[in-house]
Design brief:
One of its GO terms (cellular component) is respiratory chain complex IV. 56% of the residues lie in helices and 0% in strands. The protein is mostly helical. The two termini are 25 Å apart. The protein is globular.
């Protein structure tokens, strides 16, 4: 399974179609992939497992989200609106 994930990450170009977000506006897609990445990191860190599978979510949200959105700063300040 790790080889499959590594291969997918290596061949990654842009965010694939996600049936949860069929419309043109990808704001929610960006937001949920950001949440999924940090939830994945949190849960796998708690289990003491390698967090490499979480990199998929990070690549998706990095390709969809504008760089001007500073959610990491909001998380550090404790003002981020999502539940991670």
């Amino acid at each position: 399974m790790a080889e499959d994930i590594a291969t997918k990450l290596q061949n990654y170009r842009t965010a694939p179609f996600d049936a949860r977000f069929p419309n043109q506006n990808q704001t929610r897609n960006c937001f949920y992939n950001y949440l999924d990445y940090h939830r994945c990191q949190k849960s796998l860190d708690a289990k003491g497992v390698d967090t490499a599978p979480c990199d998929w979510y990070k690549r998706v949200y990095k390709s969809l989200c504008p760089m001007s959105w500073k959610w990491d700063d909001q998380r550090a300040e404790g003002t981020f609106p999502g539940k991670i």
